[in-house]
Amino acid sequence: MRAADLFKKTRKFVRPPYGLYEVFALLGGLIILLSIPLTVISLQQRTVFKASADVDGLVSKINAYRASKGLVTLSQDQKLVNAACWMANDMATKNYFSHTDSLGRDPFARMAAFGVGSSYWRGETLAAGSSTGQQTFDLWKNSPGHNSVMLNPNFRRIGVGAAYKSGSTYGYYWTADYASGSATSVTNQCELVDTGTIQGYKVVMPGNKNQSPAAGQTVKLDGGSPTTANPYYFRNVKTGNHAVSVSVPSGYKVGYTLCYNKTTCHGGTPTTKSSVTVNVPAGGYADLWWHYTDIKSPTVSITSPSNGATVSGTKTITASASDNVGVTKVELRVDGALKKTDTSSPYSYSWDTTAVSNGSHSLQARAYDVVGNVGTSTTISVTVNNALAPTVDIKANGSGGPITISYNTSVTLSWSSTNTTSCTASGGWSGSKGTSGSESTGSLTSSKTFTLTCTGPGGSAVDSVTVNVSSPPTKPGDINGDGVVNIFDASILASRWGTADPDADLNGNGVVDIFDASIMATNWDG
């Protein structure tokens, strides 16, 4: 380091804060300090430089050091950060180490150019060759001049910049600018030469949603300290290959999409893996997204009826379902056949058991989540035992009727029934009957309807059959149809004598004459 590094200048100084003796003492120690960067760079050749983290760490160490001395801590200030970052980068890219920059400005002119003018107390410390914030702090603490700047009681704010340039004399360059006054909030740190950024999101598929559990997972760079930020950034990462890994919660798988210097590659199919080697581009960025997919199936169970239950009538089948992300639908199945798809809890289906046969039947539920994982319940068995509705069927001479028979003849009634325990006759017959059977009616001289009512556990059923009986045959000569041949019929015959009256023309020869009178006389009842 140079002797100028060991002095500080402020807005109100009249002379250097050190006497001539102190200057020579510091210059004596300078030879030792100059050798340190060369040693450090040779030992740290493989170090991955994460400047944003080391800058924050260096500021924390300076503040802890000041607090141990009873001094106020320093707030990071964006103006001073900008000045320090510019200076560190200028030294790295132009390959020099001096408080006078490549534009010929001293620290105070440079800070003024970045908005921190002469109305403030100001100071600067530089370091080169140290690859970490801890090494840089140790160098400054062990140098009286730098140490006095860090412990200046007038300062209230700080900006630290770091840069790395391969092929430069020291590789790593550090600048810390100090000032009095109020700090402006810091939103940006240095972007280093020969470094790039790894950035990205942790999202849940489908839809690449920024939500739990993805958002809270940890990302590591080269096995270092994890970050749970979402989006996450690893800034100032040395160019070349670096290992990035992510944590994976139970019930999920993860894959990545990766593109360089663009953010438009994340709609494709992720590569299923929880770690990846990223080739960090100089001055650019790697956009690395982690896509989490739920692989845990929902849990689902039939809650009613219970396994082995006996059911009848209309029975409500209910199911419960849960999932680590969410249930989208539940299918309710009877004997393997889908009966209902329900999308909201409670999941249920009203099952008409009378539509199936009595006996054993299986019930099952299937639950689906947003990505299509399917959970299947244990299949349960129930017994359907419905009281079946009775049936009855009655026939006359084997016909369901109505039928017509001749006057004064009989028919055979036959009947059968199902799901019945007793039958009762009514109408043209009466009495209790068996649930099936047959019997004769005997001779019938009039039409009758025979009704049979059968009952059982499922109710009652009724059936009927009608038997029509033809009119009795008419007696020859009984013209008035009163059942006897007498004087009244003779009177009618006489009145129609010689005509073609069909009722009086008993022999059907087309005329009422003596032959018809002879027929009447033969059947005369008096």
SSE blueprint:
Elements: H1 20-43, H2 51-68, E1 75-76, H3 78-94, H4 107-113, E2 122-128, H5 133-141, H6 144-150, E3 157-164, E4 172-179, E5 195-200, E6 202-205, E7 219-221, E8 232-238, E9 240-246, E10 252-260, E11 271-272, E12 275-280, E13 285-294, E14 299-304, E15 310-311, E16 314-322, E17 327-334, E18 337-342, E19 347-352, E20 359-369, E21 374-376, E22 380-384, E23 391-396, E24 403-405, E25 412-418, E26 422-427, E27 431-433, E28 437-440, E29 448-456, E30 459-469, H7 487-495, H8 514-522
Parallel strand pairs: 1-3, 5-13, 6-13, 15-22, 24-30
Antiparallel strand pairs: 2-4, 3-4, 5-8, 7-9, 9-12, 10-11, 10-13, 14-16, 16-19, 17-18, 17-20, 20-21, 20-22, 23-25, 25-28, 26-27, 26-29, 29-30
Helix pairs in contact: 2-5
Short description:
The protein is α+β, with helices and mostly antiparallel strands and 526 residues long.
Description:
It is a single chain. The protein is an alpha+beta fold and 526 residues long. It is built from eight helices and 30 strands. Strands 5, 6, 8, 10, 11 and 13 form a six-stranded mixed β-sheet that branches. Strands 15, 17, 18, 20, 21 and 22 form a six-stranded mixed β-sheet that branches. It has a five-stranded mixed β-sheet with strand order 24-30-29-26-27, with no helix packed on it. Helix 2 (51-68) packs parallel to helix 5. It starts with 19 loop residues before the first helix and ends with a helix. Residues 1-50 have low confidence and may be disordered.
